[in-house]
Amino acid sequence: MFLINNNEKDLFMNFEKIGLRKDIENSNVLIKINLSGIYGKNHPRTDISLLKKLVSFIYQNGGTCSIAEGANGRLVENLVFSGFDDFLDYYNIKVIDIEQVECDEVLIHRECHYIPKCFQEYSVRIGLPAASKREEMLYSNNIKLFFGAVPKNKYQLDYNKVSNGVPRPKLHINLNSSIVNLFLAINNYSPFKYYINGGLSYNEKIGEFTLAETYIGDNALELDNYLFQTYFNNCEYPEYLNILKIIINN
């Protein structure tokens, strides 16, 4: 299920319709964003204005929140540079840099993944990615968001099989399978209930653009498919979505 809106009033109404308002009352909420580095041209990040709207809604309805991302110890710096410093100070939001926390091992289809233990401390977990299909890279949105939810040091190789520019080379040996397995590992260990998509995006065929509407849903695969067909259908369809469809349907 997902809901669509194109203004702030309807966004907050959709938060209520989908059940978010009820869930966050007296709850601690985890928000996984896409902000491993600051914005650069043709490399969109989580929309900060949308993040601010979500955080405001959480606190206005009796909740608190923490923000998580793997950013090499620079997540606070990235948030401040992106214009989120006023919210960090006002709400005293906890910032979780994935590279600096303890993890548990989760085995999925004979592939081991390392999920932050602190994820289980939150009763509500929300994904807030940026949708993109960049040159020589796979379509990225809700499902691929979790590549930034695991520490880099757990996914290194002791031999040079993939390019040095890949931060987690072990995940790239069988890339599509690893995307699926990591998503399933997260779902088994600390499932995310909501996904919110909006803001600046990138399509390798047309360049940067802004999503016409904001989408909130409770099914990452459904939303990824919808946004791909709506905004990226001139690109190659990612194999990991096909793999995940087969697993879920079986």
Task: Write up what this structure looks like.
With 250 residues, the protein is α/β, with parallel strands linked by helices. The protein has a single domain, classed as Rossmann fold, CATH 3.40.50.11440. The chain has helices spanning 8-17, 20-24, 48-60, 75-81, 85-91, 175-189, 220-231, 239-249; strands at residues 2-5, 28-33, 64-69, 94-97, 103-108, 111-116, 124-128, 132-133, 194-197, 200-203, 207-210, 214-217. The strands form three sheets. Strands 1-12-9-7-2-3-4 form a seven-stranded mixed β-sheet, with helices on both faces. Strand 2 (28-33), helix 3 and strand 3 (64-69) form a beta-alpha-beta unit. The longest helix has 15 residues, at 175-189. The radius of gyration is 17 Å and the shape is globular. The protein starts with a strand and ends with a helix.
What attributes characterize this protein structure?
Rossmann fold, 250 residues, three-stranded mixed sheet, alpha/beta, 32% helix, seven-stranded mixed sheet
Briefly say what this structure is.
The protein is built from 8 helices and 12 strands.
Q: What's the CATH class, please?
A: Alpha Beta
Say which CATH homologous superfamily is assigned. LarA, N-terminal domain
Shape: globular
Spans of at least 5 consecutive residues with low confidence: none
- Largest sheet, strands/sense/barrel: 7 strands, mixed
Number of strands: 12
Q: Order of strands side by side in the largest beta sheet?
A: 1-12-9-7-2-3-4
Q: Please, how many domains?
A: 1
Question: Distance between termini?
Answer: 20 Å
Mean pLDDT over the residues? 94
CATH architecture: 3-Layer(aba) Sandwich
Order of helices and strands: EHHEHEHHEEEEEHEEEEHH
Secondary structure category: alpha/beta
CATH third-tier fold name: Rossmann fold
The number of helical segments is: 8
Percentage beta strand: 15-25%
How much helix, percentage-wise, in residues? Answer: 25-40%
Global Rg: 17 Å
